[in-house]
Structures are given as structure tokens and as C-alpha cells.
Specification:
single chain; about 270 residues; alpha/beta; nine-stranded parallel beta sheet; 10 helices
């Protein structure tokens, strides 16, 4: 009889305990600094699977489908959340095989290219630039690109591959939120340096409440992220681009405050 009443007690109380635990977890996440980590240059299934095996909420940014990356649209189907890593013209990097958008491209041609990418990636919402130091420094081209993004319901995150990017100017001019990369994690491709950059990314998120870090599918990057997993899960909330944008909107933030430009990848 005692066991029966104990069983009933557990049934009655455990849901309440679970509810309280859920509330505590929600409050914990709500108060944590927000960190969006994007892993650029995803072009193979193995790279995406290696990212998923980390067990961290890191957003893959997948190359669009081109002759050089023919299977990326199929690869995107094995993940629930992704971005597209859009090649834009760079000052010094040759990337013809990735079909970058060049300065001077008409809005009609931009629209055609982005509609093609949207067809390849049906769940697409966010894109960030691959290279693009020349394109993102061009006021007219970025203005046109953002207008096409608006038409197609897309959002741009600036990878900040140059200090001359015009997106901050456009953000102020148009009262438009444009999220921007705060830090690269793996410009220096060794585990010790990447571990330090992860720590800096966490500190950046803590200092202003949010941050965006970009990394790449390199062996030492995976190793450093795996070793930093406990700290990442404990000290910040790893979130998606949509969740970060919602957070900023809730805070009435229309201008993304970037941390100091650090280890800039000039291309």
C-alpha cells in the first residue's frame, strides 16, 4: 500500500518539478549572453556531419550549388538550420568557379542569381558573404543587393572581410538592422590560437550581451570547439541567426554594435 501511494505521489509531483525545472532553464537561457557561431565554407556531407557531431548549436553556412560545389543543395537537406555562404567579389581572391556576384551586376541579374539559390535551398533565410572585400565596400552594389534581399525575404549577415564594408553606413541610413561578424575563430589555424579566440568570443558576448563568431571546417577548429564545449554551454547561449535577430529586435536594437575589428581576414 505504501508503494502504491508513493507511486501516486511521484506521478503527481514530478510534472510540477519538471515544469519548474523548465522555467528555471528558460530563465537561465534568457539571462545568458547570446553567441551566434557560424561555420563557413561547408561544401561536403562529411564537414556537415562533423559539425553536427559536436553537439553544439553552430549554424553551417553552405556554399551555393556551382560547378565547383555541385552537391551542396543535397547536403543542406540533412540539417534543420543553415545559411548560404554567398560569394561576392573580392579585391585579391580569385573565385570564378564559385560564381561570385561582381560589382556592377544589375539588380535583375542579382535577383535571378538569388532566386536560383532560393530554389536550391528552399528553407533559406540568412546569407553571409564569402570573401567580398570589393563588393561590400561598394555603396551602390550593397544597396542594390539589400533591396533584392528584401524582395525575396532574405537577410544578410556581413562577414566583415574588410574594414571598408559599407553595411554600417547603410544600417544607419536606412534604420535597418544588419548583423555583423565580431570575431573570426580560426584565422590562425592551430588549436591553441582557436581556443583563445573562442574565449575572446565568449567575453565579447558577455561584454555587450551578444556577439557573432565565424569559423571554418578545419581539423583544429573542430578539436578546439569540442574541448570548449562545456564552457560554451555553460557561459553563453548558442543561438541561431533568427534567434539572435529576434533578441536584438526585442531589445529595440536596430544598429549592430560590433566589437573591435580583430584578426581581420583581408581578401
Amino acid at each position: 500500500m505504501f508503494i502504491f501511494f508513493l507511486f501516486l505521489f511521484c506521478i503527481c509531483t514530478n510534472p510540477l518539478q519538471a515544469l519548474e525545472s523548465t522555467k528555471e532553464q528558460h530563465q537561465h537561457h534568457k539571462s545568458q549572453p547570446k553567441l551566434l557561431i557560424i561555420m563557413d565554407d561547408i561544401k561536403s556531407e562529411q564537414e556537415l556531419l562533423s559539425l553536427q557531431q559536436l553537439g553544439l548549436n553552430i549554424t553551417p553556412s553552405i556554399f551555393p550549388q556551382t560547378p565547383n560545389t555541385p552537391r551542396t543543395a543535397q547536403i543542406a537537406r540533412i540539417t534543420a538550420d543553415y545559411m548560404v555562404h554567398l560569394p561576392l567579389e573580392a579585391l585579391h581572391l580569385k573565385q570564378e568557379s564559385l560564381k561570385p556576384l561582381l560589382i556592377g551586376t544589375s539588380k535583375d541579374d542579382m535577383r535571378m542569381r538569388l532566386q536560383e539559390i532560393k530554389t536550391q535551398f528552399p528553407k533559406l533565410k540568412y546569407l553571409n558573404n564569402h570573401a567580398g572585400s570589393k563588393f561590400t565596400a561598394s555603396y551602390e552594389d550593397m544597396k542594390n543587393l539589400l533591396e533584392v534581399f528584401d524582395e525575396l525575404g532574405l537577410r544578410f549577415i556581413d562577414s566583415m572581410t574588410t574594414q571598408d564594408s559599407i553595411t554600417s553606413h547603410l544600417s544607419k541610413e536606412q534604420n535597418r538592422l544588419i548583423m555583423q561578424r565580431d570575431i573570426f575563430l580560426d584565422n590562425r589555424p592551430n588549436k591553441e590560437s582557436i581556443a583563445l579566440q573562442i574565449a575572446i568570443a565568449i567575453q565579447k558576448a558577455k561584454s555587450k550581451g551578444y556577439a557573432i563568431a565565424i569559423c571554418h571546417p578545419k581539423r583544429d577548429t573542430f578539436r578546439a570547439l569540442k574541448e570548449a564545449k562545456e564552457r560554451l554551454l555553460g557561459e553563453v547561449e548558442l543561438i541561431s541567426p533568427m534567434a539572435l535577430e529576434s533578441f536584438l529586435q526585442e531589445k529595440n536594437i536596430t544598429f549592430y554594435i560590433r566589437s573591435k575589428f580583430q584578426y581581420a581576414q583581408i581578401q
